[in-house]
Amino acid sequence: MPDVKWVLKGREFAHCNCAYGCPCQFNALPTHGDCHAVLGYDIEQGYHGDTKLDGLKFAGIVSWPGPIHLGHGQVQPIVDERATPAQREAILRIMSGLDTEPGATVFQVFATTYEKAHDPIFAKIDFDVDVDGRRATLKVPGIITARGEPIRNPVTGDEHRARINLPVGFEYTVAEVGRGWANTSGAIALNLEDSHAHFAHLHMTQSGVVR
Questions:
Q1: What is the dihedral of CA 114, 119, 120, 123, to 10 degrees?
Q2: Do residues 90 and 49 touch, judged by C-beta distance below 8 A?
Q3: Which of 73, 104, 116, 176 has the fewest CB atoms within 10 Å, measured from its CB?
Q4: Radius of gyration over alpha carbons of the chain, in Å?
Q5: Chain centre distance of CA 189
Q6: pLDDT in tens, 79-126
Q7: Which positions ≥6 away from 157 have C-beta within 8 Å?
Q8: How far, in Å, CA of 99 to CA of 24, rounded?
Q9: Distance CA 79, CA 21 (A)
Q10: Torsion sign (Cα): 114, 117, 122, 126
Q11: pTM greater than 0.90
């Protein structure tokens, strides 16, 4: 067991370049052969050891030249500028997979696939997500502009609702599926248009997702 215990409860928005549904969620290869994504997290309640994390936000830009499990990826961590030095360190340790059992969380698994971790950015993060409504906006000035929306029926234009249920997943148990758009700049520049997004309630610890 890790020496430091931590908990994150909140909401997340993840948007990548795959087709709606994202084959990665089903242990299949990514739609276009590579993987590029933006990630946003709102911590409603949380702590890392004695450091409370309630009310903070963090985000990331990630990119791999092929399937995630083949590695050679890169990550740009972004942490809420309001965080104290102790809170910054705590969030970065969680994002880096430290103080976490191997394979227990998406952060720890992804961390094993990065070839390059860019220096963290501490910035204002404007992030709002409605999980059930499949809507989100994520803005980090000069770095990320992203949004998520429901999938639309191509005939009627009505909102389409679909879910992914992963009873033993390392990120969530149930996620609402939608679509998203994003532009990023800096160390990892992306342009994602009308591709997969998911919205989920986050509850995890150093030992994995709490069911």
A1: -140
A2: yes
A3: 116
A4: 16
A5: 17
A6: 999 999 999 999 999 999 999 999 999 999 999 999 999 999 999 999
A7: none
A8: 25
A9: 28
A10: negative
A11: yes
